[in-house]
Amino acid sequence: MKHDLIDVTIHLNCSRKPGTLSRLIRDMKKLGLSYTRHQIEHEQDQCVISVSGSGQLNCTRDKLIQIMEDLPGVLAVVKLQITRNGEHIEAFKTRTSNEQIHTQELLTPAILLTAEKRLAETIGPVAKYMLDSAAKTSQNTGQLFSALAEELNSDSERAEFLSIIETG
Hints:
alpha+beta, 5 strands, 6 helices, globular, Alpha-Beta Plaits, 2 domains
């Protein structure tokens, strides 16, 4: 059975603990969502991280909130937005583990070149080889950026790369 893709945006109050964003992105992938973007608003001793993804959730809304609240560094879920075709939805079907996610976001040469340049800002000339490897297994930009971030050595490198990608 085919389910429509949904878009999820989660707004979280977080401590300034390094690695929170990379854990969020990694867990989104486990929940059936491909990372699309994030935004971080820094406050005095904490921050608000808004992270978005698209796909077919393999858990309920309540379970998603519980998983996010249980992540290290997350203080509270501030807001959860779930939309389909731009319209807010409350109820949705979850995908099962054997269903495949089909996305329509294709990797273009321009996206690959930009990703290589941004990755090189973080790790230097080895970026081209990492990008080539990650692009072979990625179907869209969310998968590509997640795969590249997972290959970086430290949480600070992951955060730097994802921040550079987002700000373009």
